[in-house]
Write a structure and sequence with these properties.
Chain B: InterPro entries: Peptide/Ni-bd, SBP_5, SBP_5_dom, TAT_signal. The complex is a heterodimer of chains A (321) and B (535). Chain A contains 14 helices and no strands. With 321 residues, chain A is an all-alpha fold. By secondary structure, chain B is an alpha+beta fold. Chain B has a domain of 208 residues: Dipeptide-binding Protein, Domain 3 (Dipeptide-binding Protein, domain 3, Roll), CATH 3.10.105.10. In chain B, helix 15 runs antiparallel to helix 16. Classes of the chains: A mainly alpha (321), B alpha+beta (535). At the A-B interface, helix 2, helix 3, helix 5, helix 7 and helix 11 of A face helix 7 and helix 13 of B.
């Protein structure tokens, strides 16, 4: 393939290849670390009914008496054809995770749709009015909200808005039987919590990326030409800061898919994170593997997008010498 | 209100909590006080509900052990969630356990055993129908029980149905069950929540797809690991029951989230209230703490195949060297009753009341001397999930035992895999037992020689009595056997029982209920047909 004529295509192909390789490694690590965990599905699920015979019968039924490598390869073979297999309880993994994944994606999309534009706007404002009150106020408050652990923010939101003011329900346990309005109403507190957690990170990074560009000679040049400060930020600095901003946005989007376990538990939100906890507790390996694949795909996918955005936005990267 | 009465009542309640008073004694003495004119606030679990049950209403329950793998195969159930929602809501057993712990007919109208308790006949109640209108017959019962008996069965009830040799249908309304050896407790065993009665399929097997049961409710919606919603079955076979129009089970794993859900009115009941939140719930006017005496008990188990635990005197020394009152006060904040090395709970039929085992340095030293030792050193394995407060209890035990010349080295094990790698593998470890509905069942799973969970303890007299009592249908003779067995366990056994705990729930005052059973969680899994909404 001619690198110079299709730089974007060749870059995407090589990145996707690397991404697939990372997925393979992730799945290998997850599979074998799960088998290192003490205890088995059979004894976890049988609980106080776990007599040795019952455990043995269940393990034979699930094929757990076969060698680990054989189990991994047969799982991998099926996964490669898009078949994630059956959970140990006999339901197809996609039936277990599908509705959960949809919930997670809904929560993530709504949060992202609010957070990304808001964070970039506020970051630009901070950079434009550097050192002024708005900048100092946002910098301090974002630093504070980054420093608080997310479960604390979640309980704080719950205490203020659910217990004291009683504006919103404390539980975001949405169900199919609820209409869209009620589902959204119940999602307010988790969304608010997630916003506080990710906004701070994105605002600070946007501000830093723009400010680092602001000290470049061409920005100086633009100022000398007499452009207004606002125009300098929007026209000269922002386009050149897109690369780093894209990577921090990607990181936060990936977090919204795979990192919100704690918030899901606190607000009883039925997402993938809770599903994974449930699966780990029961040592339900096919479901754990599928969750790991979903999370890894989200991370790799969003980072790939960020790379593409920063390369496309930077002609020097797009046409390397 | 008479103040001295009030103080006496408080004292009774305290003594009941500490285990210095049995529940029966408490009731006798407290009712004497009440008759004397005292009006007092009893703890939630014991409060009798004066108002009659009311029809209608919607009850929401915050439980915590639903799983995304939950399904309608009764053999796969292992949680109080599946037990209370499926077994207790949608299905019935042949028999049910009443709140007072006795066994009563449910789908079976009556039963009788041939002498020797080997052959049993259960006659079905007439006119019972499944939700789809099909009427219940003996074939449904046969297939439902045989579902758990297949050779490759992975059912949680496997240990129960293994005793069954054959099940035959006699006419459309009688089932004849033949056991491999006599067992007078068979009706109790058939109340196990796995043994729900499903409609039989034509070619054999049971219909596990359509949630078509005989139960008080129909399955309105079921989202595994999230929520289950039930709707009243208007054709239920019990008079007036169920009271509620609808019940929703909501899964809330996190204890704080569960408490918040109750306080903000999202649910009317939460299971397993955290011990630290008891005061908070009790202070509020809208909710009560419910404490239901249960079979669940916390122990330190000794492997009698390993020195020094092979010596009965060392075992007795260790039993005397634990100050249970101190542990209950400091670790369980008074929320437990004192154990006395008898694993049979006081609410259990055939419980034998034995004197409390008090902390005694002298007796501990005496038994050590009998074993020819003046000091002994043992490793005690614990983990945070061995039982709630296990590490703290072991630390106190270490102090208590040191006084008697016993050195306890606390080995803190990994919580993950504790039950696979520590329990029954390490010679001395902390254990959380849920108990078993019958004494026979408890003994056959944990105490007779070679029982699956027995850590090496073997007593010929105990085994002999176990065989005798099992097939004995004369209750007085059985009681005598079980009393002797409980004494053997206390004086020779391998288990130091620290305390018995109650099912501790928090419930909104808008919910009504009668006496609540504790042999199994959630009113013997039958709360949704027994409870009601008051307003």
């Amino acid at each position: 393939m001619n690198r110079t004529s299709h730089p974007i295509l060749s870059m995407v192909v090589s990145r996707v290849g690397l991404g697939l390789l990372s997925l393979l490694i992730v799945s290998l690590v997850i599979f074998f670390s799960v088998s290192l965990l003490p205890g088995s599905y059979a004894s976890a699920i049988l609980g106080q009914n776990a007599t040795p015979e019952a455990v043995a019968a269940l393990e034979t039924k699930l094929g757990l008496d076969r060698p680990a490598l054989w189990r991994y390869l047969s799982w991998l073979g099926a996964a490669a054809t898009g078949e994630l297999g059956q959970s140990f309880a006999g339901r197809p993994v996609m039936a277990v995770l599908g509705p959960r994944l949809l919930n997670t994606i809904t929560l993530a999309s709504i949060t992202a749709a609010i957070a990304v534009p808001l964070a970039i706007t506020l970051g630009v404002i901070c950079a434009r009015f550097r050192g002024r009150f708005i900048d100092r106020f946002l910098s301090t408050s974002t630093l504070a909200s980054i420093s608080l652990p997310e479960f604390f923010v979640a309980y704080l939101m719950m205490m203020i808005f659910a217990v004291k003011l009683q504006w919103f329900p404390s539980m975001a346990g949405i169900r199919n039987s609820m209409d869209l309005g009620e589902q959204l109403y119940r999602m307010v507190l988790p969304i608010l919590t997630l916003l506080l957690v990710i906004l701070a990170h994105m605002i600070r990074n946007t501000r830093a990326a723009i400010l680092s560009v602001m000290s470049s000679p061409y920005v100086e040049m633009a100022r000398l030409k007499g452009e207004s400060e606002g125009r300098v930020v929007m026209r000269q600095a922002l386009p050149n800061a897109i690369g780093p901003i894209a990577s921090v946005v990607a990181l936060n989007l990936a977090y919204l898919i795979s990192g919100v376990v704690v918030i899901e538990v606190v607000f009883v939100y039925p997402g993938v994170g809770q599903a994974m906890i449930d699966a780990v507790r029961n040592r339900d390996v096919p479901v754990i593997q599928a969750c790991a694949l979903i999370f890894a795909t989200a991370y790799i996918g969003f980072n790939l997008l960020a790379d593409i955005v920063s390369i496309v936005s930077n002609p020097r990267l797009l046409h390397p010498r | 209100m008479n103040k001295s009465h009030h103080l006496m009542m408080d004292d009774l309640v305290t003594r009941l909590r500490r285990g210095q008073l049995s529940r029966r004694e408490f009731l006798a003495r407290s009712s004497a006080l009440l008759a004397a004119g005292a009006v007092v606030g009893l703890p939630g679990g014991l409060r009798a509900q004066e108002a009659a049950p009311k029809a209608g209403g919607f009850m929401r329950l915050g439980l915590h052990n639903a799983s995304q793998n939950d399904n309608l195969d009764p053999g796969s159930w292992s949680t109080s969630w599946t037990g209370a929602s499926f077994n207790g809501g949608v299905y019935n057993n042949l028999v049910e356990i009443l709140p007072d712990g006795s066994v009563a007919g449910d789908l079976a109208e009556s039963w009788e055993a041939e002498p020797g308790a080997k052959v049993w006949r259960f006659k079905l109640r007439s006119g019972v129908t499944f939700h789809n209108g099909k009427s219940l017959d003996a074939e449904d019962v046969r297939q439902s029980l045989e579902h758990h008996m297949k050779p490759d069965s992975t059912s949680g009830a496997r240990a129960i149905v293994e005793q069954i040799e054959t099940i035959e249908v006699e006419g459309s309304d009688t089932v004849r069950i033949t056991l491999s050896e006599g067992n007078a407790d068979l009706p109790y065993l058939l109340s196990d929540y796995h043994l729900s009665i499903y409609p039989a399929l034509d070619g054999g097997g049971i219909d596990m797809e359509s949630a078509n049961g005989t139960g008080a409710f129909t399955l309105e919606s079921f989202e595994p690991g999230i929520a289950t919603r039930l709707k009243r079955n208007p054709n239920y076979h019990k008079n007036n029951k169920p009271y509620l129009d609808e019940v929703e089970f909501i899964n809330i794993t996190d204890a704080t989230a569960r408490l918040n859900a109750l306080l903000t009115g999202e649910v009317d009941f939460i299971q397993d209230l955290d011990i630290r939140n008891v005061a908070m719930v009790e202070r509020s006017g809208d909710f009560s703490v419910q404490r239901i005496p249960s079979l669940r008990h916390f122990t330190f188990d000794m492997d009698t195949r390993v020195a020094p635990f092979d010596n009965p005197d060392v075992r007795l020394a260790l039993k005397h060297a634990l100050d249970r009152d101190d542990v209950i006060e400091k670790v369980f904040l008074g929320e437990a009753t004192k154990g006395n090395d008898n694993p049979v709970a006081s609410i259990q039929k055939f419980h034998h009341e034995l004197p409390a085992r008090d902390y005694s340095v002298e007796k501990a030293r005496e038994h050590l001397a009998k074993a020819g030792l003046d000091q002994v050193s043992v490793d005690l394995s614990v983990a945070e999930n061995a039982f709630a407060g296990a590490i703290e209890a072991a630390t106190l035990y270490q102090r208590h035992a040191a006084e008697a010349g016993i050195t306890i080295n606390i080995v803190q094990e990994a919580a993950d895999g504790y039950w696979e790698n520590v329990w029954r593998k390490k010679p001395f470890c902390a254990v959380d037992y849920f108990g078993r509905a019958t004494v026979d069942w408890l003994f056959s799973t944990s105490y007779v020689t070679g029982a699956p969970w027995n850590s090496g303890w073997s007593n010929a007299r105990f085994d002999e009595l176990h065989q005798m009592a099992r097939a004995e249908t004369d209750e007085a003779k059985r009681m005598a056997c079980y009393a002797e067995m409980q004494e053997i366990l206390r004086d020779d056994g391998n288990v130091i029982t620290v305390a018995f705990v109650s099912w501790r729930n928090a419930v909104s005052n808008r919910i009504g209920f009668g006496e609540v059973g504790g042999l199994m969680p959630l009113d013997n899994m039958r709360m949704c047909e027994r409870w009601w909404v008051k307003d």
